[in-house]
Specification:
heterodimer, A: mainly alpha, Rna Polymerase Sigma Factor, Chain: A, Arc Repressor Mutant, subunit A, 9 helices, about 60% helix, globular, B: alpha+beta, Jelly Rolls, six-stranded antiparallel beta sheet, three-stranded antiparallel beta sheet, 6 helices, 9 strands, about 35% helix
Chain lengths: ~210, ~220
């Protein structure tokens, strides 16, 4: 984790990304600002706004793709493509429903198939089904997206590190429960129940009795 | 002891049904697949992943990365890495829940896929219990063959969509059929459909498929 927010080589990114230590998630105000920027891209093809989003997100998307197993060249290529998609589909972004991070993650997620096609890693992916029709949503009332975004980030800070690590392996890296069990040297049943527990905490739905 | 608040996944009745249903490995696989698909569909998972993306240590991009992005935007070139139809149907199963992925890989090494009707390929899963499980790959517009055995069947849509006499189903949705109802799923026209089908072939397994009926049936 870097305390000054710069990358190891090359020019530091422009915009707000370089002022922040790698490892912190965005504050509500910063998320709002990024939503403003993406809306500006959508409504007036604002290149300065886009450059700021690029400076923050492209390196992180690249980092994510490398974590999935892509080498730097492939990750760069796909990250590039994700950011171009961001420009092209900006008018589909609905700030009431998601933060820019959530939205970009979904775009990046859908490119995983390209990583797997060109690497040998077998794909075990509980999250690929993320973009699903309305019928799939849980029946509880829809909460404001902003509330969810804030709650989840707060929960991420409060969660015991090993539980967050399990959620990360499952939902960010897309490992199967068995792969997680092997990697952490923990029984499969334990992985399943801990992920369920941690996920419910994320949703703020754990009973307190 | 931590008690979970009521939800479609975790109340006591559900837990009991899940426990009874799990006795058969094919039913356990069915449950795990539905639950995994429904959990992954939860927006919380995407929000979590977005938060984790923010925390990622930024990789270094090429010096000209932004310029290249603008060049691509200006050229209006089509994405090279667009997700689309692949030659091998197997790659579409990347979308399948992890619980199922392992069973599929095992089955592909063992019996493998075979054609059972025009546009229908079948992969028997050989779960080892009395309830049989199979993956069907349904080409657009193709109809599954009429079953010759009596028995109840539960069909989970994994990828794409299908319709039968009772309705239309997309990923994560379950169709249940009794032996006296003609059940011939037909793949939607806009793409390949994969389903997980379990059937008790007329044997008395009230607990197993009854549990699925209670939890997921309409």
């Amino acid at each position: 984790m870097r305390s000054d927010g710069t990358g190891p080589k090359g020019s530091p990114p422009k915009g707000s990304g370089d002022a922040r230590p790698a490892g912190d998630s965005l504050s509500a105000a910063e998320r709002e600002r990024f939503s403003d920027l993406l809306v500006a891209v959508a409504s007036s093809k604002d290149r300065d706004a886009y450059s700021e989003l690029f400076a923050y997100y492209a390196p992180r998307v690249k980092s994510y793709l490398m974590r999935l197993g892509a080498d730097a060249g492939l990750a760069e290529e796909i990250a590039q493509d994700v950011m171009v998609t961001l420009w092209r589909k900006a008018d589909m972004f609905d700030r009431k429903q998601a933060s820019v991070s959530t939205w970009i993650f979904r775009i990046a997620r859908n490119r995983r198939i390209d990583v797997f096609r060109r690497t040998k890693r077998p794909a075990l992916d509980p999250e690929e089904t993320m973009i699903l029709p309305q019928a799939m949503e849980a029946p509880e009332a829809r909460v404001e997206a902003q509330e969810t975004e804030t709650r989840v980030r707060a929960a991420m800070k409060d969660l015991p590190p090993e539980q967050l690590e399990m959620l990360k392996l499952a939902f960010y890296e897309g490992l199967s429960h068995r792969e997680i069990a092997d990697r952490l040297d923990v029984p499969l049943g334990t992985v399943k129940s801990r992920i369920r527990l941690a996920f419910l905490k994320m949703k703020g739905r754990l009973g307190d009795e | 002891m931590i008690r979970f608040k009521t939800s479609s996944e975790t109340d006591a009745t559900t837990e009991a049904l899940l426990a009874s249903g799990r006795a058969d490995p094919a039913i356990a696989l069915f449950f795990d697949s539905v639950l995994e698909m429904r959990r992954a569909a939860d927006p919380t998972a995407a929000v979590l992943a977005g938060g984790l993306l923010e925390r990622a240590a930024p990789a270094v991009m090429r010096e000209d990365a932004l310029a290249r992005a603008f060049a691509a935007i200006d050229a209006g070139e089509k994405s090279q890495a667009r997700r689309g139809r692949t030659a091998g149907s197997e790659l579409e199963l990347i979308k399948v829940p992890a619980a199922l992925q392992e069973a599929i890989q095992r089955a592909e090494l063992a019996r493998g896929w075979r054609s059972v009707a025009p546009g229908i390929r079948q992969l028997p899963l050989d779960m080892g219990g009395a309830v049989s499980a199979e993956i069907l790959r349904i080409a657009p517009g193709a109809m599954t063959p009429r079953h010759t055995h009596k028995g109840r069947e539960a069909t989970l849509c994994l990828v794409g969509g299908f319709s039968d006499g009772r309705g239309s189903y997309g990923p994560g949705e379950v169709s249940l059929a009794d032996p006296d109802v003609t059940h011939q799923p037909r793949g939607d026209d806009d793409g390949v459909c994969f389903v997980l089908a379990v059937t008790d072939a007329g044997l008395k397994f009230q607990g197993a498929l009854g549990a699925i009926q209670k939890l997921f049936g309409a």
